Amino acid sequence: MNLYEHTIIARQDTSPSEIKQLTEKYSKIIEKNEGEIVKTENWGLLNLSYLIKKNKKGSYIHFKIKGKGNVIGELEKNESIDKKLLRYLTVKVKKFDLDTNYFTKKETEDKVKN
How many Å apart are CA 36 and CA 44, to the nearest integer? Predict the structure, then answer.
């Protein structure tokens, strides 16, 4: 089994309920193709470095996936025709970092430390 980190960026005008639907939709595709979702993270609405299809911001969803290559092929095939998505990226990794949350706010990290 290969390990993948997969991130999708949805349009900035996508509602929270639509974000949840997107997460469920792609989770089902992964599971249908014998993949396993280790962790799902909703990073929220973040600024983009440059305009993508006239959007300044995007809602980020990040998946940590165990599976074979056909899982990613099927996932990216469905994402390429989805009008709600701006971009997607898949990276093959050797192991997952399940401890670090990179997109939590600094205030909550300070409270945890104290």
Answer: 23
Q: What is the pTM of this model?
A: 0.82
Break the chain into its structural domains and give their ranges.
2-97
5: its two tokens: 């980190």
**pLDDT by residue (tens digit) across 74-86?**
998 999 998 999 9
Q: Where does 2-97 sit in CATH, by number?
A: 3.30.70.60
User: What is the rounded distance in angstroms from the CA atom of residue 28 to the CA atom of residue 104?
Assistant: 26
Q: Please state the separation of Cα 53 from the chain's center in Å.
A: 19
Q: Are 85 and 8 in contact (CB under 8 A)?
A: yes
CB 25 within 8 A of CB 93: no
Is residue 104 within 8 Å of 42, Cβ to Cβ? no
Strands 55-67 and 2-11: antiparallel
